[in-house]
């Protein structure tokens, strides 16, 4: 009987002890083994760091490529400086190099020709001179309406015809530069003709001012200031033409 009770008691306690033991074992295992969540945190941090580093490297490479592409483009500062130096070389032969450079460097289209061409620079200078003379053509007429002195009016009428002639002389020079296929923009005979025309254009403008000064006209300074740009560019054009052969040689070119 006692034996039966003891056995029953043991049998009854075994499941409880077993559960307690199992729970204790699970608790020990939880302490011994690091959790899955704890492992994930370092892995995520490493992955993010790797992605950021990779992004920075790619950004640096792309930035370097863009910079290289920009510096090698036709609009790069080094190429522009090369053309600027070439224009300065041409303008240095003129009497007014500052106005020559400031205007021609803006007007001359760098992409107009694959190679720098002094003849095209000369043509650009002629166009500037002609534009200034054309804008000046109506100026004497305006002053005539304001003038009260008959002698000043007479001098201004002379200026009117003289400026028209100057404009026509520059236009003749430009027309000589316009050629068809196979024709040369410049030849020895053309250069002589163009020098004559440009010299006449300069003389016309100077004669206008001389006439106003002789008449003691009150508008002398006004006309002189208005005429200064056209005088400078007609003079610059003549100087470039007079040195065109040397300039072409400096750029390893010949008349064409």
TrEMBL record:
TM region positions: 43-66
EC number(s) recorded for this UniProt protein: 3.1.1.11
Residue ranges constituting the Pectinesterase inhibitor domain according to the UniProt record: 82-240
InterPro entries xrefs: Invertase/methylesterase_inhib (IPR035513), Pectinesterase_inhib_dom (IPR006501), PME_Inhibitor (IPR051955)
Keyword set, alphabetical order: Disulfide bond, Glycoprotein, Membrane, Signal, Transmembrane, Transmembrane helix
Molecular function per GO: enzyme inhibitor activity; pectinesterase activity
PANTHER family to which the protein is assigned, alphabetical: PECTINESTERASE 1-LIKE, PECTINESTERASE INHIBITOR-LIKE
Record family assignment: In the N-terminal section; belongs to the PMEI family. Belongs to the PMEI family.
Annotated NCBIfam families: PME_inhib (TIGR01614)
Name by which UniProt lists this protein: pectinesterase
